[in-house]
Amino acid sequence: MTYLRTWAGWVYLATVIDAHSRRVIGWAIADHMRTDLIVNALVMAMTLRGDRPAQVIFHSDRGTQYASAQITAFAIKNGMTRSMGLTGICWDNAMAESFFATLKTEFYYRRVWPTLDRATPRCLRTAILATDRGSSTRRLTRVH
């Protein structure tokens, strides 16, 4: 989960990244950072990928929302295997951290975000898809 500042206050973005394809397959944005935000991103990913819970390993950091009973129950209910990085070791979640850094550097910091409505859903969806297409060796130069 990452924080995005608008003139009206903070908004929060949760993503689900497929580690094999390195593509964002689920995301949710809201003006709160409750666990429901992560559940919404997971539901989007499950809808996109279909029901393959036995093949899913859900890796996250040890943030409060990710370590919550609600997320644990959701993972168990949907047959997901849980994996959590070590406390204080950012490299354990490097794929997500790298994605958020690219998203912010190449798209978010280059625009003005007056309100949550301006940050979602179309503008941020475009940014996620454009950043998702990029690679670590090529800077994002065009957003559709």
UniProtKB/TrEMBL annotation:
- Which Pfam family is one of those matched by this entry? rve
Q: Which InterPro entries match?
A: Integrase_cat-core, RNaseH-like_sf, RNaseH_sf, Transposase_IS3/IS150/IS904
Per the record, the GO terms for biological process are:
DNA integration
**Annotated Gene Ontology MF terms?**
nucleic acid binding
Which residue numbers delimit the Integrase catalytic domain? 1-144
Instruction: Give the stretches traversing the membrane.
Output: none
Annotated protein name in UniProt? Integrase catalytic domain-containing protein
The organism encoding this protein is Cryobacterium frigoriphilum
